[in-house]
Specification:
Length: 660
């Protein structure tokens, strides 16, 4: 294995670790060995019943090939996309549901270690749900909010509550094309039902059901998760931290929190700061306790507490290969089972903590919100006890980068006018004038089949150079952070002059870290606020805005791409289309969706073409809105109104309340 090893990561610290241990298998080696099935790879395989699996291949397969039941290639490909969307919606939906039940437990006094930290955000959400909050006990409001949001999961008729946040015109499009989602569970079940053998045989109809399901994700499960996480743990505001695999130290007990749901991780953040725990760590010869994050649990604790991030999806195994991880704690989603095998080569204890995620060889602690702190102490103590067991020397790296993370929708609004005049006016004006060419949501996973993290870095560099403001989430944020792109200073050096001027005036970096993958819902909220502000499009569709997931992996990514497409944002995903085999399905997801919703889901493997396509979408949207033509280099000479240093001075004077 060592001789032909291919390491497809653009992150130097991960590459250094893997190169120093060529015999240790990682996802890069497995990606190299596992050639994708060429038929499944392009969506031409149906496994939905036992008359198959059917392969719809051959000359003119689009019009002539049929499965044993008679299903055509477009139907098979559409079913595949729809089921991926249902899988992703289920994942984000269950995440949101868990958060809603935690809020309910807090409100009812069954989760004493948690409390409502952001009362203003609670009131804001209560207002959106038409729940009275004036003069009421916080926990009473929290109970009503949790109860009403929990109803969104099982609602049989009606619509998901938070759809009301979307601009009216966007909502009208959903009504017109019959994709207003009811309850999340209902939409997921319906997609599974529709796509089983002998059901819907119309590709367009199947894909419309998938769009409805995806909206239940974006404006339901994900948005609920984001809102409740803010309510319980605080609405993020910019905070400085560090990124890369170099965050782990030889002297300290190192603990990793990985996954997506931050409830237990929040408790671990508290426990590692307890003087008794630090004193206990010292008795074992450690200097202290060092907590680091991975993937989206990392994003959650990074933007609220400044806990450093070790990186995204492909860094899981390299993190353990440092030999420095005393406990690796995982919750839900994007956890590769292979970490247990790598951990066996070292002294690392892997803790699984959700009953939905069991991995043979891991130590399981069933997370119970009523015992959250006690369980966090159990994990931290086990990590400390494991510190003296470090025997095998891993490959340590020291390079790390500063990052600024935690730009919530509320904070971006606040930065454009302060607490009393918070708005999106300065940004809208800058876009209308052509100082900022447009906005790109750079999101999604890092993929071991490509130069992992490299396409994120390439696009981030080129987009800001072209005066495009980036909002970043999930592992894309980790990719940008691990490359040193999440500081105003470094990124501003590379930004085009118009974007740089606006960022300096408002006091924001050109790449805004918005959070975890569920926090793509923050982009929906921002786009809605920009539409309501006026001066650009009066709906989400038609904005000079694009979503890009250049290294996507998961079903969640497909569900996210679909909810952006349905909401009016063209999305470009990297790699070959997973439904390339069917021209009709490709046409529906690009041309038909664009005509109906002004959004699309397009796949493009060439990073340069992704960039060109994104800029083309943006420029065409500008032309349709009759905005000033974007001219590179035209701006950038005007006076700086308020720079980052000045903004920080204001911050030092007192962190503002930004929930309202
Ligand atoms: S963790 S879904 S690999 S972004 Fe949210 Fe990263 Fe993709 Fe998982």
């Amino acid at each position: 294995m060592a001789k032909d090893k291919k390491i497809r990561t653009a992150q130097p610290s991960a590459a250094q670790i893997m190169e120093s241990m060529p015999d240790q298998e990682t996802c890069f080696d497995r990606a190299d060995k596992m050639k994708p099935c060429p038929i499944g790879h392009e969506g031409a395989c149906c496994k939905h019943c036992y008359m198959g699996p059917c392969r719809l291949v051959g000359k003119d397969a689009e019009t002539t090939a049929k499965g044993v039941c008679g299903a055509t290639l477009p139907v098979v490909a559409a079913r595949y996309m729809a089921r991926m969307c249902a899988g992703g919606t289920a994942a984000h939906g269950d995440h949101g549901r868990d958060m809603a039940f935690t809020l309910l437990a807090v409100a009812e006094g069954h989760a004493k270690d948690f409390q409502v930290k952001d009362v203003r955000k609670l009131y804001r959400v209560a207002g959106d749900l038409n729940i009275e909050f004036e003069g009421r006990q916080v926990n009473d409001v929290a109970r009503d909010v949790a109860t009403k949001l929990i109803e969104d999961f099982s609602r049989q008729r009606g619509e998901v509550n938070l759809l009301s946040r979307a601009p009216k015109k966007t909502q009208e499009r959903w009504k017109k094309y019959g994709i207003v989602p009811r309850g999340m569970d209902r939409e997921v079940v319906e997609v599974m039902d529709r796509t089983t053998m002998g059901m819907d045989a119309d590709a367009d109809s199947i894909l419309s059901a998938a769009l409805r399901c995806s909206l239940a994700n974006g404006w339901g499960g994900s948005m609920i998760s984001t809102d409740i996480t803010d309510i319980l743990f605080g609405t993020p505001m910019p905070i400085k931290a560090e990124a890369s695999l170099g965050i782990f130290t030889e002297e300290d007990v190192n603990i990793v929190v990985h996954g997506h749901e931050p409830s237990l991780a929040e408790m671990i953040v508290d426990v590692v700061q307890e003087p008794e725990m630090i004193a206990y760590a010292k008795t074992k010869g450690a200097r202290g306790i060092n907590l680091g994050g991975m993937c989206c649990t990392a994003n959650e604790v990074l933007m609220r507490h400044g806990i450093p991030t070790a990186g995204g999806f492909t860094n899981q195994e390299p993190a353990i290969m440092t030999g420095l991880i005393d406990a690796f704690t995982v919750d839900v989603q994007c956890i590769i089972p292979a970490i247990v095998e790598v951990a066996k080569q070292f002294h690392t204890i892997v803790f699984t903590t959700s009953d939905k995620v069991r991995i043979p060889g891991a130590t399981h602690i069933s997370f119970d919100e009523s015992k959250a702190k006690e369980q966090a102490r159990q994990i931290v103590k086990a990590a400390i006890d494991n510190f003296p067991n470090r025997t095998k020397k891993g490959s340590h790296v020291t390079e790390k980068f500063p990052v600024i993370a935690g730009f919530s929708h509320e904070y971006i609004e606040y930065m454009q006018g302060g607490r009393w005049r918070a708005s999106f006016r300065p940004l809208n004006d800058a876009i209308a004038a052509g100082r900022v060419r447009g906005v790109v949501g750079l999101a999604g996973c890092d993929n071991p089949r490509w130069p992992s993290t490299g396409i994120h870095k390439y696009l981030a560099t080129e987009l800001i150079k072209n005066d495009v403001l980036i909002v970043s989430t999930g592992c894309s944020s980790a990719a940008c952070g691990g490359a040193g792109y999440l500081t105003p200073e470094m990124a501003l050096e590379n930004a085009g002059p118009g974007l740089r001027e606006v960022c300096e005036a408002i006091g924001i970096p050109p790449i805004l870290h918005l959070g975890a993958c569920v926090d793509n819902s923050r982009i929906l909220t921002i786009a809605s606020a920009m539409a309501k502000e006026g001066g650009l499009s009066d709906e989400i569709g038609g904005m000079p805005a694009v979503g890009i997931a250049p290294e996507w992996i998961t079903e969640k990514a497909i569900a996210i791409g679909m909810y952006f497409a349905a909401s009016g944002v063209p999305c470009i995903f990297g790699g070959e289309s997973p439904v390339k085999a069917s021209k009709e399905v490709v046409r529906i997801m690009t041309d038909v969706w664009f005509e109906r919703f002004k959004g699309a889901l397009v796949f493009e493997p060439d990073p340069e073409k992704i960039l060109a396509m994104a800029l083309d979408y943006i420029d065409k949207a500008r032309a349709n809105l009759k905005l000033k033509k974007y001219e590179p280099g035209k701006f950038g000479t005007e006076k700086v109104l308020m720079d980052m240093a000045a903004r920080r001075e204001i911050e030092k004077a007192g962190r503002p309340h930004i929930g309202l």
